[in-house]
Amino acid sequence: MPKGKSLKLHKEFGLNPTISQCILCGEDKNELVLLGAAYKEQAPMRMITTVEPCDACRKTYLSRGVMLVEAEVNDKGQRIPTGPVMVLKDAAFKRIFSVPLPEGRIAFASKKVFRLLQKEVPNDKS
Ligand SMILES: [Zn+2]
Q1: Which residues constitute the domain of residue 69?
Q2: Contact indicator for 8, 37 with CB cutoff of 8 Å
Q3: Distance CA 31, CA 27 (A)
Q4: What are the tens digits of pLDDT across the range 79-110?
Q5: Cα(21) to centroid of ligand 1, in Å?
Q6: Shared domain check, 90 and 116
């Protein structure tokens, strides 16, 4: 929730709380998030509420890589993550995008860019 804004209660579910999960590992982040009316339905017990990963994942992955989050821009100009994420090593990020590492080491990319990268970057598991 942006600072300085009050929480609008959900008509049926009030504070509408959920436990925030890490976007990378899916573990609980020990954060209780009050969604109120910002979430249309009853919030699930756990959900990903932010692209910021947990402290352990930030330390493990973002200390030497950049997390790319697939996102679409809605008609209000807001970036809405669509699900897929990947972490590129620093060298790969610089080679592919030819831009400095983003602040916070989190960047957003369109579905089209993700499709191209998935062809380009072999999956470690295959
Ligand atoms: Zn994590």
Answers
A1: 61-120
A2: yes
A3: 11
A4: 999 999 999 999 999 999 999 999 999 999 99
A5: 8
A6: yes
- The set of residues, in sequence order, having a beta carbon less than 8 Å from that of 97 and lying 6+ positions away, is none
Question: Is position 52 within any domain?
Answer: no
pTM here is 0.81
pLDDT classification of 126: cutoffs 50, 70, 90: very low
Number of domains in the chain: 2
Q: Is 125 inside a domain boundary?
A: no
| Domain presence at residue 2 | no
Is residue 68 classed as helix, strand or coil in its secondary structure?
strand
Residues 43 and 67 in one domain: no
- Quote the ligand 1 centre to 6 CA distance (angstroms): 29
Ligand 1 centre distance from Cα of residue 84 (Å): 15
Give the model confidence (pLDDT) of 41-62 as tens digits.
999 999 999 999 999 999 999 9
